[in-house]
Give the backbone structure.
Amino acid sequence: MRERKSVAAPATGIRRKGQGANRRRKAPRDWKKVLSRLFRGLLMVVCAVLLTAGVVLLVHLLSVSEHFRVDQIRVEGNHHLSQDEVIALSDIRQGTRTFDLNLELIGQKLAETDWIAAASVERQLPRGIVIRIRERQVAYILNLDFLYYVDQDGTIFKVLQQGDGLDYPLVSGLSREQLLEQPEPSRQWLQQVAALLEVLRSRSIFGLDEVGQVRIDFENGLELYTRHYGVPVRIGKKDYASKIDHLEQIYPRLQPRLATLAYIDLNVPEKVIVKYMME
């Protein structure tokens, strides 16, 4: 039989971690410091709760106080509408608690009114309210089955009613179908009319007092009609100021002959073409 030999593992001299080493003792917890931190945290929470409660209580006391009731309403920026009309539209009542009013909602409600383009409302404590509005300015009257006011931005904002002023330029040519089916081109043309009328307002030779009507043509542009004899003045789609400049150079000579003119064409660059009825 073979003899079994046992081989002993060589000694490496390496000790397992922790063997023969003294274990490090844990330092005792500083309960005084722990309690101090807990106390400070609790104190901060309590202070925050008390502060919040105090603010809530103060707001509540202010909101129910008889000292904060509306007794003065001032309106700024109104020209067409009277102060009483604006106050009535705002639905703010004397004696209402100022903190019960939703100022943003009131401003939005006012801005939905025909004559008001924008509105803001603010408190003037303890008893005052200020309403600031920006009214729409009529640029012309649009004939669209009914007559409508249009502002400088090309916005149709009010159908005319009995008693409304008619002393504004009259504009025609735009149909309700075009307005509904082509809203953006229609709005651009309405803005172009306002721009043309603004040019005419600054002129003394051929100004607004010489114009009886403006007609919109999607294909050919704008056409004016003189107040006297209704002579068409074809002014097209752009460069209104320069075209009026050229017309004003000869208009004093044309004005006595308006009854004999078929049309005036300003669409040829640097020229004014005049067509007589007999030609």
